[in-house]
Design a protein that fits this description.
The protein is an alpha+beta fold. The protein has helices at about 1-5, 15-25, 30-40, 45-60, 155-170, 180-190, 200-220; strands at about 75-80, 85-90, 95-100, 105-110, 115-120, 125-130, 135-145, 145-155, 225-235, 240-245, 250-260, 260-270. A hairpin with a 2-residue loop joins strand 7 (about 135-145) and strand 8.
Length: about 270
């Protein structure tokens, strides 16, 4: 309530409870309490079950609600999603607009005082804000693809430095330190069915563990590893792109690194 009354001195407990419930995807405080009781009284959900529950929640239709337009002034700024990706939040006349590094600005609209969804309904994602007593957001959370990724607020100087480093790396078009070694590790771990989850970001570790049975069958069916060739740095997602040839298939792999030892994200596809 202290945070609510910092921005709205007339805020009531019932209003704060309703807004909190909406932040978690529930239409009312009573529904949120019922879900909490169900989860705490039953078995603890697995990581896979949680991701599926979040995917369903994130894909449901959203309803815009009116809020005090001055509230969003505390949300404007820069948030660090990953070491190479910044979430920028700005105003454009009456719209609140956001962009991730390398992408275009998109408008978001409120479903509660602190949670917003994309006006473009094809983007099944939401952004919520953690707010301090002064009404200024200290973090933003991206809700998408069954994940909830929290980004701390950073200064404009740090945001500019991160994006400048990204531009310089793309201009140099060289792989990140440790990238090829990490790729070879993740291929070997997939083939052996023993992933090194501790050397992955938390979102990647959850996804990798969930998809391991399918990926294990796929990569094993491709045969022995023959060669790994760096193709370049993607201008879309700043990933290192590799062509990886197996004895029975050719594939494209994309990795982003968080330091020389930790894989931030990874994906692969079969190439013609």
């Amino acid at each position: 309530m202290k945070q609510e009354r910092a921005t709205d001195p007339t805020a009531q407990l019932a209003t704060a409870q309703r807004d909190l419930a909406r932040d978690y995807g529930f239409p009312s405080w009573r529904r949120l309490l019922a879900e909490v009781r169900k989860l705490t009284e039953g078995l603890t959900e697995t990581g896979k079950e949680r991701m599926e529950r979040l995917r369903i929640e994130q894909a449901r239709p959203r309803t815009e609600v009116p809020i005090d337009p001055t509230v969003v002034d505390g949300y404007l700024g820069f948030y660090e999603l990953t070491p190479t990706i910044i979430l920028v939040v700005q105003r454009d006349q009456n719209d609140l607009i956001v962009r991730l590094t390398g992408q275009a600005f998109c408008a978001i609209v409120p479903e509660s005082r602190r949670k917003f969804f994309y006006r473009n309904s094809t983007i099944q994602a939401q952004i919520s804000f953690t707010v301090g007593p002064d009404g200024i957001a200290t973090a933003a959370t991206l809700h998408q693809n069954g994940l909830e990724q929290t980004s701390p607020r950073i200064t404009g100087d740090r945001a500019n430095a991160i994006e400048a480093r990204r531009e310089a790396r793309q201009a140099a078009n060289t792989p990140a330190p440790g990238s090829e070694a990490a790729l070879r590790r993740i291929i070997e771990a997939t083939q052996q069915g023993r992933p090194e989850l501790a050397r992955m970001s938390k979102p990647l570790a959850r996804a990798f563990d969930e998809q391991l049975p399918d990926n294990l069958r796929t990569v094993r069916s491709w045969g022995d590893l023959v060669s790994v060739d760096f193709k370049g740095v993607s201008r879309i997602d700043d990933s290192d792109v590799f062509t990886v040839v197996f004895s029975a298939a050719e594939s494209e792999w994309r990795l982003t690194m968080n330091g020389p030892e930790t894989i931030e994200s990874a994906s692969f596809r079969l190439t013609p």
